[in-house]
Automatic annotation (TrEMBL):
Organism phylogeny: Eukaryota, Fungi, Dikarya, Basidiomycota, Agaricomycotina
Domain RING-type intervals: 195-237
GO cellular component: nucleus; Smc5-Smc6 complex
Class of the enzyme per the UniProt entry, highest EC level: transferase
Native source organism of the sequence: Pisolithus microcarpus 441
Chief subcellular location: nucleus
Protein name, UniProt field: Non-structural maintenance of chromosomes element 1 homolog
Length: 340
């Protein structure tokens, strides 16, 4: 016998098959599911509605069923247009487990390597050239060829895990930001910049021009700021230029010519933290006059320094091992903090 809970079940099936969908698309699906259930059992009291509170109540009912499975039907605004996008997310996911049914372990390891290079990319550009993405295959202990890697990249783009720009640069899609956010936050805590306005991760948007100021905003969040508030920075209070386009970009627009050559050096594990890095830390300290200076900036420059050194010849082989284990990042960051 068809029951009202069948609306949720049908709806979830539709969501799973699509991966990620917009709010308006989700409303259409909800209505279709209600119609299907009513067609089977006309006396059932189920309905779909365009009223926000009814939609939210429906989402809550879905999550009551999903939460015991460590899943959540969650939304985020896409970084470009600010469109509300929904997907079912693994809430326990500090690993990239949700891709396991579609990709082999080697392909997931490759994806993880590409994500790492995107997160560690210079200048907060959060993107990676095609060439650099293919080069990541060399760092993996698998026999994946470049042409296989190319087809994995194509599939990741087709399934909405990565975006590929007109310039051929890869970046994280809304789906990745939504589904991988616990993974990104636990592995790249210093690179996960938060939008000053909506508090979600920013990988494309604008930054305040003041050095060391932490203000980052999505374009859509920035556009929605009342004119009065858009005149000066909420964090450092400096006046912002009248021409909004002169604010510093975050995302692909931030990459400069020739900056993309070197491979970002992967994270070190605690055991491998060397004296060399202690030196780095003390060098960093010289540039940091007070504790009030945001920690994020220090770490960012530390990453940049590591990159310079990582570009020296002969280091790539030693790095492979660590490269496969981004989850050690946290302990390294902690160990740095403890030493301070
Ligand atoms: Zn925002
Ligand atoms: Zn500022």
């Amino acid at each position: 016998m068809v029951a009202s809970s069948d609306v949720q079940r049908l709806f979830l099936q539709a969501v799973f098959s699509r991966g990620i969908l917009s709010y308006s698309h989700a409303l259409v699906l909800w209505k279709k599911c209600v119609d299907a259930v009513k067609a089977a059992n006309p006396v059932l009291d189920v309905r779909a509605s365009e009223r926000r509170e009814e939609w939210d109540a429906f989402v809550n009912r879905i999550n009551d069923a999903l939460n015991p499975l460590d899943l959540e039907f969650r939304h985020v605004l896409d970084e470009e247009a600010g469109k509300e996008m929904y997907a079912v997310v693994n809430t326990r996911g500090d690993e990239i487990a949700q891709m396991a049914t579609d990709y082999t372990p080697a392909e997931i390891a490759y994806f993880r390597a590409v994500v790492e290079q995107i997160m560690l990319a210079p200048n907060e550009c959060y993107s990676l050239s095609s060439l650099a993405a293919l080069r990541e295959v060399n760092a993996l202990k698998t026999n994946m060829t470049k042409s296989q890697a190319e087809s994995v990249l194509g599939s990741l783009v087709a399934r909405g895990w990565l975006l590929k720009s007109k310039r051929g640069r890869y970046s994280l899609s809304t789906r990745s930001l939504l589904e991988l956010s616990p993974y990104l936050k636990s592995n790249y805590p210093d690179e996960c910049l938060e939008c000053t306005i909506c508090m979600e991760i920013v990988t494309r948007g604008v930054a305040c021009n003041t050095p060391a100021c932490q203000t980052r905003m999505h374009q859509h969040c920035f556009r929605k700021l009342p004119a009065k508030q858009a005149r000066s920075c909420p964090t450092c209070q400096c006046d912002w230029p009248l021409d909004r386009r002169t604010l510093r970009p975050v995302g692909e627009a931030a990459i400069r010519d020739g900056q993309d050559e070197g491979r970002r050096r992967p994270r070190k594990s605690t055991a491998e933290v060397s004296d060399e890095e202690d030196e780095e830390d003390s060098r960093m300290d010289e540039h940091v006059p007070s504790q009030s200076q945001p920690r994020r900036r220090q770490t960012r420059s530390a990453v940049a320094m590591e990159v310079d050194e990582g570009e020296e010849e002969g280091q790539d082989d030693e790095e492979e091992e660590e490269f496969l284990q981004p989850s050690r990042t946290k302990s390294r960051t902690e160990s740095r903090r403890q030493r301070r």
